Write a sequence for this structure.
């Protein structure tokens, strides 16, 4: 399966964004815009958009380039464009009429004479040189940070981007204030043998370049779609009744999360219905202090000085008490409302004694084996004070006594069941007499 842009791919694989049919969604490139005008036919050559959008370094940087000859490029194609004293290689991210909307959004004019041009489709030689120079970037980051540290400059090198032909390198750095890097540029130029360009970025832009997963479980907004960064302060959290916890409100960049501004307008509209200057209201029991505002249920929670219990009041009741206080009247009660939830109340399960009902066979086997070993260790300790002969005689006596008790018990049971069983029959008077040919009869067996 493939999209319209990749339907002509050869070999069964799409030649677009390599997402196996999801080229229009832009799943393998950052900061992508959905091309919902890709099926729009070109009406006229003169009125067609002669500008394409090209992304570099997997979408971390995008720029517009002029395509005067309207060469047919697909999304994801590698092309060679004009660079600084050479050429650069980028990936086509948008073509067609959707590019005009992106240019209008960024304030770029289509007839700008300074806009660079598209040279050609990238050849195998161009791609080989581009990959070799891209492989130098990780080492350049480490070396550039060490040089900046040696010069004792208060700055951090975030990323180094090499041009495809290796003639220029852009160093992105973070600094709290102004940095005099004139000496640093000379050292970088002699060290890397390139033309050096220094570009300062903020902490949010660095997080967008590095990327990552946010606390919501999704990829960071600054690395996927967010391009303009608005200021975020703690007032946005206060309006939304969020606890001012710096560790929970901060993002990957160490600043306040940008998503605090997403629902701020909705909360501000809802807060317009709540009365102002109602932090303290007077009742007969004393002053009631405002604890929080439930924006979704239109309730205001107050507490009294004599207890820690919180009382929910409706907005109309708070306004009425405030108007009575302004007239010098103190109401007797707050008249709180009963807060009910729509969820059914779960029945509490009865306490069940589970001890003895749950058994683990492995634990039982181990415990049984442990008891047997303990009994074997205790048995020689008990008999260690007796001699071997005494132990043997004691065992014989004990065994004989047990044999006699068993015989007597058996005879008594037999007499109880059949009392005439052992009486002599008239036909055989010597049946119960002892035979002389068995001399061992009647002796106790040794155990």
């Amino acid at each position: 399966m493939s999209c319209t842009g990749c339907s002509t791919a050869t070999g069964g694989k799409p030649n677009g964004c390599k997402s196996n049919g999801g080229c229009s969604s832009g799943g393998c490139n950052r900061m992508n815009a959905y091309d919902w005008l890709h099926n729009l036919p070109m009406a006229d050559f003169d009125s067609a958009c002669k500008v394409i959008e090209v992304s570099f370094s997997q979408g971390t940087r995008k720029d517009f380039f002029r395509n005067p000859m309207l060469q047919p490029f697909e999304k994801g194609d590698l092309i060679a464009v004009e660079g600084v004293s050479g050429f650069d290689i980028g990936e086509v991210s948008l073509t067609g009429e959707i590019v005009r909307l992106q240019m209008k959004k960024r304030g770029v004019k289509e007839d700008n004479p300074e806009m660079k041009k598209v040279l050609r489709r990238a050849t195998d030689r161009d791609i080989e040189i581009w990959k070799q120079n891209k492989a130098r970037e990780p080492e350049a980051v480490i070396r550039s940070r060490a040089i900046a540290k040696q010069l004792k400059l208060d700055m951090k090198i975030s990323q180094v981007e090499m041009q495809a032909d290796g003639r220029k390198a852009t160093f992105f750095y973070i600094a709290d204030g102004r940095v005099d890097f004139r000496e640093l540029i000379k050292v970088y130029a002699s060290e890397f043998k390139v033309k050096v360009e220094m570009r300062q970025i903020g902490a949010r832009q660095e997080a967008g370049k590095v990327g990552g997963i946010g606390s919501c479980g999704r990829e960071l907004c600054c690395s996927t779609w967010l391009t303009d960064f608005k200021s975020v302060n703690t007032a946005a959290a206060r309006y939304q009744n969020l606890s001012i916890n710096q560790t929970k409100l901060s993002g990957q960049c160490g600043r306040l999360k940008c998503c605090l501004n997403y629902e701020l307008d909705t909360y501000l509209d809802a807060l317009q219905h709540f009365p102002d200057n109602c932090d303290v209201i007077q009742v007969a029991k004393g002053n009631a202090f405002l604890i929080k505002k439930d924006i979704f249920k239109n309730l205001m929670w107050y507490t009294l000085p004599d207890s820690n219990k919180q009382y929910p009041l409706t907005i109309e009741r708070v306004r009425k008490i405030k108007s009575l206080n302004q007239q010098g009247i103190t109401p007797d009660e707050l008249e709180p409302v009963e807060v009910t939830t729509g969820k059914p109340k779960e029945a509490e399960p009865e306490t069940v004694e589970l001890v003895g009902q749950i058994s683990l066979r492995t634990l039982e086997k181990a415990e049984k084996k442990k008891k047997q070993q303990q009994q074997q260790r205790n048995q020689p300790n008990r008999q260690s004070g007796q001699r071997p002969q005494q132990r043997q005689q004691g065992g014989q006596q004990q065994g004989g006594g047990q044999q006699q008790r068993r015989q007597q018990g058996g005879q008594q049971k037999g007499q109880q069941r059949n009392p005439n069983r052992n009486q002599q029959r008239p036909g055989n008077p010597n049946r119960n007499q002892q035979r002389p040919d068995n001399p061992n009869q009647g002796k106790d067996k040794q155990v």
Remarks:
- Residues 388-417 form the longest helix (30 residues).
- The chain has a mean pLDDT of 78.
- The CA atoms of residues 7 and 14 lie 7 Å apart.
- The two ends are 87 Å apart (CA to CA).
